[in-house]
Specification:
Blueprint (H helix, E strand, L loop, with lengths): L2 E3 L5 H13 L2 E3 L12 E2 L1 E3 L4 H15 L2 H7 L1 E4 L3 E6 L3 E5 L4 E2 L6 E2 L2 E6 L7 E2 L2 E5 L2 E5 L6 E5 L3 E4 L2 E3 L1 E11 L4 H21 L3 H17 L3
Antiparallel strand pairs: 1-14, 2-4, 3-7, 4-6, 5-17, 6-17, 7-15, 8-9, 10-14, 10-17, 11-16, 12-13, 12-15
Helix pairs in contact: 4-5
Length: 224
């Protein structure tokens, strides 16, 4: 399941984050790429140590983890620190698959889900599409500022060259309590259906049964 989620950030948040990024320090993104991804990675990332970067990360992380659709889609157990990436002047990130395990020590996580949260308006730059390469063919994503695409980390993907303007995104990885993407999709569908029933009819007997099934499927599948 590849999901686009709109309005994770308000326009006011997006514009404040953009001015913080304008004032931030960026470095070569190859520093955090694995040995083969390094061959095709050409972008910049905000230096992670500053107070500014930490505050921005906390704000974006809170917006994501507090959003009900994001919660339903990812069912997070752990999340990597968010990275702010920037592409301009032809920068690109060729086809690659994200590392299956990231972090060190207690912070090690298995990457089940990747996300890209777009921070610049699509009209303000050319190129920069995130392209996923699945058995169903290629899909291209270039979303409004404040919207994110959430996709299985097992997906081959790339970022097209940015030929005008700049493309800034917040990216990160999640270890889900539900490892299997097909199982996550079952839970997502069931959760969506029960919420729609609740909105239409309130807390009916059918809503209660769906809620029970959703909970019990998680008892079968969840890794805590
Ligand atoms: Ni990637």
């Amino acid at each position: 399941m590849i999901l686009c989620i709109g309005n994770l950030l308000t326009p006011a948040q997006v514009s404040r984050i953009r001015s913080e990024l304008d004032a931030g320090q960026f470095e070569d993104g190859r520093k955090t790429a694995g040995w083969h991804a390094r061959l095709v990675k050409n972008n910049e990332q905000m230096a992670s140590g500053s107070d500014r970067a930490q505050a921005l990360r906390a704000e974006v992380e809170a917006a994501l983890t507090g959003h009900p659709v994001f919660q339903m889609a990812v069912r997070a157990r752990k999340m990597t620190p968010i990275i702010f990436s920037r592409y301009h002047d032809g920068m690109t990130y060729g086809n690659h698959v994200d590392d299956p395990v990231m972090g060190r020590g207690e912070n090690r996580i298995r990457t089940d889900i990747s996300f890209t949260l777009f921070l610049d308006d699509p009209e303000s730059y050319d190129g920069g599409e995130l392209v996923t390469d699945t058995t169903a063919g290629e899909q291209s994503y270039k979303l409004p500022a404040g919207s994110a695409v959430v996709y299985p980390s097992s997906t081959l993907h790339r970022v097209e060259p940015v030929t005008r303007g700049q493309r800034r995104v917040a990216i990160g990885w999640i270890q889900s309590t539900i490892r299997d993407p097909a199982q996550r999709e079952v839970l997502f569908d069931l959760d969506t259906a029960r919420r729609q029933i609740f909105e239409r009819e309130g807390k009916t007997a059918e809503f209660d049964l769906l809620t029970k099934s959703l909970a019990n499927l998680q008892r079968f599948w969840a890794e805590i």
